[in-house]
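Deviation from plan, reported transparently: protoporphyrin IX containing FE complex.
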Amino acid sequence: MAHGTPPTQLTNPLMRWVEHRMPVFAFMDQHLNKYPTPRNLNYFWNFGSLAGIILVIMIVTGIFLAMNYTAHTDYAFNSVERIMREVNYGWLIRYIHMNGASMFFIVVYIHIFRGLYYGSYKSPRELLWILGVVIFVLMMATAFMGYVLPWGQMSFWGATVITNLFSAIPVIGPEIVVWMWGGFSVDNPTLNRFFALHFLLPFVIVGVVILHLVALHTHGSNNPLGIDKKGPQDAIPFHPYYTVKDMFGFAVFFVFFAAFVFFAPNYLGHPDNYIPANPLVTPAHIVPEWYFLPFYAILRAVPDKLGGVALMFGAIAVLAVAPWLDTSKVRSAAFRPVYKILFWVFAVCCVVLGWVGAMPAEGIYLTIARIASAYYFIHFLVILPILGKVERTLPLPTSISAAVLKQGSGMVAGAPAEKP
Amino acid sequence: MRRMILAAAAALTLVAGPALAAGEAEHPRQQKWSFDGPFGTFDRGALQRGFLVYKEVCSSCHAMQQKAYRHLANIGFSEEEIRAIAAGYKVMDGPNDEGEMFERTARASDRFKRPFANEKAARAANNGAYPVDLSLIVKARHDGANYLYSLLTGYKAPPPGKTVGEGMHYNPYFPGGQIAMGAPLNADAVTFADNTPATVEQMAKDVTSFLAWAAEPEMESRKRMGVQVMLFLIVLSGMLYAVKRKVWADVH
Ligand code: HEM
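Because the crystal trials were delayed, the predicted structure below was used instead.
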């Protein structure tokens, strides 16, 4: 960090005064303006900042919802309907928040798969990656508890099914479940604590995101070639190049987001959640929100309850250790012909898991779920360690600029080469 | 860019799943609704006729706790009409200064009067079955509007070999095929002010429209705002793309 030296000659006396005591302007200049960024990032590098903007949107809309929401089993459902019907633009705030959760997961899943494809989790970015997995876990907890708040049928039964999983823990499991519920079933105390935690966790996420960014800015972004920057000719300043590119990404993504909010606000949800919670009536199929389905499929693929729970959490934990399971020295799949194919096989495997997660756990669906679950773990535990040792990778370019300039001349027709 | 769209599409196929989990019932017959699609609006005539069907037929068993008489202004009833509709009901209020509950004539601000004091009373009057609150029914079922229309017009004699339980009625659109509600609509059960013939299909269609509005009263303003927001965002995207190209022109 620059030691209080103003980035440009600051003329405003107040800014000089502040800068001398706390060099915020130098900090901003370094991290938002000059910050050297690889010149070859593609649009998959937009998804981190997209996730950030969605987090802000979730917090802002969430706070307005919380002003009108009542966390009590007798009133929660009606308070949400009151938001929808009586609060000015309440429907807009709620639909943004509700669909925002799905958008958050779409964006974060793409962000994660980007990391897997380009080997962004490898040294020196292991900690950055692990912090990402922590954010992912916190997001899942937040979304799960948020879904309970409207106190519809899926809220109640989803909460019942998921909290009951903890009873599989040997010896102390049943005690833990009663402790989590604050009673002997999912009831008012459960709803109250879920609301408190649902309000808290997004701010914890903000904290971890800051750490994620500190780790990121230590070594800078990886890039589609997966090779390190060799010198200044490989980098461009963050502003204006990536600020404008991120802005463009936001606008395009908001078109997609708005299509759901305004024209299909309940498409991603389950109709049963518009039925008030009823502990005496179990829905025909209890399905979690779409973004949990792959993990739900793994859970149900195992005949043993404890085994299922262990494997489900294991499916997330295995992500965190991917930097050590992948033995390849080459980061980007662009230079790993076999990994490139197996990456897509793995991606399809995850989609298949999501699909069977929505199906009843019986017959052919169960068989598919078992095969896909097994493959999920084989990918990490067998393929990644072995492939890194045996794969014949393609020769890496000498530098980012060398590769980009060569590509650039070959691409003149399609590239925005000439200045208008 | 293309890959980004592909990835988004792949993510979406994930969600196509839950729509299939409907249980053993016939697929609802698809109708054309004025409120379908991004430019859809409600047909005020249908809504007002549908309200009449609800008021004259369904409201003897089904409550609509999310709706107040004043909401009817939204479907084209005048203030006097609403006051007159509310005046047709007596509601419990209180306690007054003596601590007594008392009955009074309903006002525009009251919720629709419910037919039974509570779920137990509703079940007692319906052979143990519960006539659900209809405020959200169209949002609370898969393919809600088509389902409702199909259910209301779907009563028929059970096919040979299919037995229907005591006090139950055959209806292939209801999960399991038998429902405790007898066919609620009979031709000419109501007389429409605009002289539309009150066939079972017509009443079913109108009451479904009314219930679709009841479930999503914000739908018209939502879609209208949606069109404006989309246009704005698409233009903004285009402009930002131009700026991006200009800024990046010297990099390649
Ligand atoms: C400080 C930030 C947040 C606050 C204050 C907040 C507040 C609320 C409130 C009051 C509700 C209940 C009302 C409703 O369901 O519409 C809710 C629902 C929900 N929230 Fe949040 N939220 C926040 C952040 C988040 C985040 C980060 C996520 C997900 C990643 C999330 C996911 C959800 C979900 C899935 C629902 C259920 C939506 C529904 O079906 O109605 N929330 N939130």
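The pocket of protoporphyrin IX containing FE is lined by residues A 58-59, 62-63, 65-66, 69, 80, 94, 97-98, 101, 104, 139, 142-143, 146-147, 149-150, 198-199, 202, 269, 273 (CB under 6 Å). We consider this an acceptable substitute for the interim report.
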